[in-house]
Amino acid sequence: MKGENPTRPSDAILVARIEQDRDRPQAEAELCARFRQRVYLYGVRHLHSASDAEDLTHDVLAKVIERVRAGGMNEPEKLGSFVLGVCRTLLHERWRIESRRTKILAKYGDTRAAAADASTSEPEASTALLPRVRSCLERLGDRDRTVLLLSFYAELDATALARELAIEATHVRVIRHRALGRLRACVEALEELAK
Amino acid sequence: MNSTTHLDAACLLDYYLGDSTMSDHETEEHLFVCTECGALLDSIHRVGVAIVELVRTGEVGSGATTALLNRMSRDRLNLRHYILEPGATVACTVATDDHFLVGRFILPDGALGRIDLRVVDAGGIELTRIDDITVDAQRREAIIFLPAQPIQEEASGVTQYVLVSPGSEGDVELARYSIDHTSPREV
Q1: CA distances for A52 relative to A121, A130, A156, B40, B108, angstroms
Q2: What is the ipTM of this complex?
Q3: A31, A172, B162, B168 — which has fewest CB within 10 A?
Q4: Strand B126-130 relative to strand B89-92, pairing
Q5: How far is B187 from chain A (nearest CA, A)?
Q6: DSSP state of A8
């Protein structure tokens, strides 16, 4: 995992190339490609909105590149932890700004508009995947399908789901995990067939 | 935890759903140094987004609970509800702008254990079968929602929904419900 791959320079080498302006555009593009999706998923997880996650990703990568260019990294081999640190800092800044904005709107403006704005979450399109997921959902047992819909769509946690289905929360976690495993295996098999 | 010890899929799923029993900080520290776990989380995300999209576009049917239907209503999906008592026939009035048909099948007395739902056409041919349907034991009902679009395109006719208890010697019928469908094109 940690062994050097000649086609994939280590994080430390990437940082050195950016700092020393050696193939900087390529190195920066590689850094972005390496971390973009992880930063985006961090944003989705904490902001519950695809568009807010996109904004956060852009801000984080811009800040990371700015800091690396300026030689601001003491431990270049820990680039991943550094990116995560920037994610956390910028996320907290967003929350602070959002909280202040909500307070101002609550005091002076329309609170309902503020609440609606904060809870908007649009899923991004995944057109190639949709027919495969639909077909694989149809092949699952009804309980598995219901648990996945309640988890991903209705956003119920294991405790709430357990209450809904009158089963134990630990049992819900097992069903949820196994159902997703079956679904992913089926989708991957269909993707293989399509190749 | 280091990058050579991967997180298991259950742990990543719990993290993604915000329902983790372990610290998010620890999971995130690992995700940012482990490409493989990052890719696994991404595949969970892609499937999750597709599930949400399929519901919002009215393309998936399933067993349901009241919480799920409430969420669909909040998303302004058009749900056409039918409450079906055992032996009853209801007139299906699905409209062209409906997203889902929701059947609330009232369970007969004594319906226990696993229950399957058979969907049968007027000629007795099984169209589909939903195994081990989700049952609300307290309300004594099973809720199923089906995409409205294929039903809108069906010709007029009676469809039967048969609840059965599967056993080693075959199905035991528990109750039969009928929906008398009129095609929107014929209205």
Answers
A1: 9, 23, 22, 22, 49
A2: 0.89
A3: B168
A4: unpaired
A5: 31
A6: B
Residue of A46, A173, A193 whose CA lies nearest to B21: A173
Range list of H helices, B17-169 = 24-31, 35-56, 66-74, 148-152
Best residue of B2, B12, B20, B28 to probe chain A, by most A CBs closer than 10 Å: B28
Residues B181 and B122: beta-carbon distance below 8 Å: no
Residues in B closer than 8 angstroms to A149, CB to CB, are 51, 55, 60, 62, 64, 68
Residues of B in contact with A184 (CB under 8 A): 43-44, 47
Q: Which residues of B touch A180 (CB under 8 A)?
A: 9, 13, 44, 47
Dist CA A150 CA A140 (whole Å): 15
Structure-model confidence comparison of residues A28 and B186, the more confident one: A28
Chain B closest CA to A45's CA: distance in Å? 6
- What residues of A are in contact with residue B55 (Cβ under 8 Å)? 149, 153
Q: Is B172 helix (H, G, I), strand (E, B) or coil?
A: strand
Q: Do B47 and A134 touch (CB under 8 A)?
A: no
A61 token code pair: 């990568």
- What's the gap in Å between the CA of B132 and the closest CA on chain A? 6
* pLDDT 10s digits, A115-167: 444 444 444 546 789 999 999 999 998 999 999 999 999 999 999 999 988 88
Contact yes or no for A30/A10 (Cβ under 8 A) = no
Residue with tokens 């010709």: B155
- The SS3 of residue A135 is helix
User: In chain B, what residues touch A126 (CB-CB under 8 Å)?
Assistant: 46, 49-50, 53
- B39 pLDDT exceeds 80? yes
Nearest chain B Cα distance for residue A20, angstroms: 23
Phi first, then psi, for residue B118 (nearest 5°) are -105, 135
SS3 B40: helix
Its pTM surpasses 0.90: no
Q: Which amino acid appears at position A68 of this protein?
A: V
Average pLDDT over residues A84-111: 79
